[in-house]
Design a protein that fits this description.
Elements: H1 2-17, H2 19-27, H3 41-47, H4 67-92, E1 126-129, E2 139-142, E3 147-152, E4 156-161, E5 164-165, E6 173-182, H5 190-198, E7 218-222, E8 228-230, E9 241-243, E10 247-248, H6 251-260, E11 266-269
Parallel strand pairs: 2-11, 5-9, 8-10
Antiparallel strand pairs: 1-4, 2-3, 3-4, 6-7, 6-11, 7-8
Length: 270
């Protein structure tokens, strides 16, 4: 018992015997050194790839912007935004540039009735093969296909493009040329005047011949009808159903036909 007691007493007296060594050991703790490289391997192992840290400005460090400066900035911001958009458009509109945004194409808006300035070349005069039992010199008008044929020898015909009656004004029959006129005057029938007046179009009782006259340069009158083969001051209407029953031709075409046929020529309208 004495030896054990003596051993315990020695162990208990050790802190009292060396007090200075214990205090010196724990009085100044060594500094903790953190690697300045946040991508060091041991830091990476703590929790995966660290996110990019954002710089947080303490409230005391924030600088207040005067009111007048905020107003100036608010006025300048839309201008700067517009300039930035203009620079982007200029950049991507250059040849070879690839746009980063989808191109939105606006639908093309077209009028209900396109304005035509010239006729389809198919309606220009030309010689064609035309087998028929009618004698040379006969005029045959195909209103469905908008062609006028002047029958000639050898199974040939000279074909012209024509404008015909609009829907509701089609007609067919066989007549003869009863009169020819150069730069004819125009006397619209009363039925046409009333019909157009109901639409808000007021026609004159008569109009002297000339470039502005709807009958154009020449006219071939058909029998006792109100129908004629005549020229037009609207050549782009050739190939369409636009008239009140008359057969329209370009002025140069009706002049050519006028020189080739005589009064009494047979005219067949199909």
């Amino acid at each position: 018992m004495s030896k054990k007691f003596i051993l315990l007493a020695l162990l208990a007296s050790l802190p009292l015997a060396f007090p200075s060594f214990a205090s010196e050991r724990y009085q100044n703790r060594p500094p903790v050194i953190v690697s300045p490289d946040l991508s060091a391997p041991w830091v990476m192992q703590l929790g995966g790839v660290p996110q990019q840290r954002q710089r947080v400005v303490a409230p005391a460090q924030r600088r207040a912007t005067p009111v007048y400066q905020r107003q100036v900035l608010q006025q300048q911001r839309p201008v700067q935004q517009r300039q930035l958009r203009q620079q982007r458009r200029t950049l991507f509109d250059q040849p070879g540039a690839v746009s980063r945004q989808p191109v939105i194409q606006q639908a093309a808006v077209r009028p209900n009735k396109p304005i035509r300035t010239q006729i389809d070349p198919i309606f220009l005069p030309q010689m064609v093969a035309y087998e028929t039992a009618h004698k040379p010199g006969t005029i045959v008008i195909d209103t469905n296909n908008r062609f006028l044929y002047l029958v000639m020898d050898g199974g040939q015909a000279k074909r012209y493009g024509v404008g015909v009656g609009k829907p509701g004004f089609e007609w067919a029959g066989t007549h003869k040329v009863t009169r020819k006129a150069e730069w004819p005057s125009w006397h619209p029938p009363q039925e046409m005047i009333k019909r157009e007046a109901a639409k808000g179009h007021y026609l004159p009782a008569s109009m002297e011949g000339g470039p502005e006259n709807p009958l154009g340069a020449r006219a071939l009158y058909l029998g006792s009808t109100l129908y004629r083969i005549h020229g037009t001051n609207a050549p782009w209407t050739i190939g369409n159903g636009v008239s009140s029953g008359c057969i329209r031709m370009r002025n140069e075409d009706v002049t050519d036909l006028y020189e080739r046929v005589n009064v009494g020529t047979k005219v067949i309208v199909l």
